[in-house]
Amino acid sequence: MKRIIVYSLLIACSLLFIAPLFWAVTTALKSQTELYLFPPKWIPSVWKFSNFADAWTIQPFNLFLKNTVIVTLMSTLGQLISCTLVAYGFARFQFKGRDLLFLVVLATMMIPWEVTMIPQYMEFNYLGWINTLKPLIVPSWFGSAYFIFLLRQFILTLPRELDEAATIDGANKFAILVRIIVPLMGPSLILVGVFQMMSCWNDYLGPLIFLNDQSKYTLTLGLSQFKGMFGVDMQSIMAITCLISIPPLVVFFFAQRYIVGGIASTGIKG
Q: Which helix (H) or strand (E) element contains residue 256?
């Protein structure tokens, strides 16, 4: 009986999360006349799958997709490389002021991005990077405090005997990182990569601030083009929303076991 109650509650809660997604899909498939019916009609009379193709071609979404993929891949690669190097330095190197510097890095997580938004815009404007993809990519190559923390915690769980054995065999610090540490960091690196990919793919405020030309727009900015001064193209918004939600859902579906393993392996230590 207890199990039936628990499963019933879980099903009821899951329906609360599924309902908005189901509504978005059915709205994307509705005809214009069924959009604003009251009471709302959940299931369309005619399933108009052509709405997806029409919405994709109204705006240059192929170009928006290309820009989004470039930003996502380059930013994710930058975070993986930079955060791994910094985390390795904090976990394995002994130097004066290391712990204080690490606390300073962690303290940057308390600063909201809205606080640094204007200084960053002024800096990128001085460099001539406004209306380019560089402001969305380059900062990722300088690391993220949260990802550095996660990777450092994982490296601390690895025995130092591995480093010492590799040193006896003639490996330098960089070789130890590349040949021993990084292969063991698989789940944690996948965790960082998925989190960064999700963040870049769904980012709206960054592209809105730094991009002016439509040819540089990302998918999220392209989605906002359906909201005009005199109306909202609800069908197209829902259709594109469903389409651009597919890649993150697929990535999360295949990487979820690595995500759980990565979180479990970055327990607090040291």
A: helix 234-265
Question: Which tokens hold the place of 119?
Answer: 């200084």
Backbone angles phi, psi at 227, to 5 degrees: -100, 105
Q: Write the pLDDT tens digit of every residue in 99-151.
A: 899 999 999 988 888 888 899 999 999 999 999 999 999 999 998 999 999 99
**Contact of 192 with 80, CB cutoff 8 Å:** yes
Taking CB atoms within 8 Å and a gap of at least 24, the contacts of 169-178 are 173/92, 173/93, 177/84, 177/85, 177/88
- What residues does 270 pair with on adjacent strands? none
Residue 133: DSSP 8-state: S
How many residues are present in the chain?
Answer: 270
Check residue 227 and report its DSSP letter. B
Dist. CA 189–CA 205, nearest whole Å: 26
Residue 251 CB-density burial (10 A; 0-12 exposed, 13-18 middle, 19+ buried): middle
Burial class (CB in 10 A: 0-12, 13-18, 19+), 179: exposed
| Residue 204 or residue 39, greater confidence | 204
Indicate the residue type of 238: M
* Helix/strand/coil for 232: strand
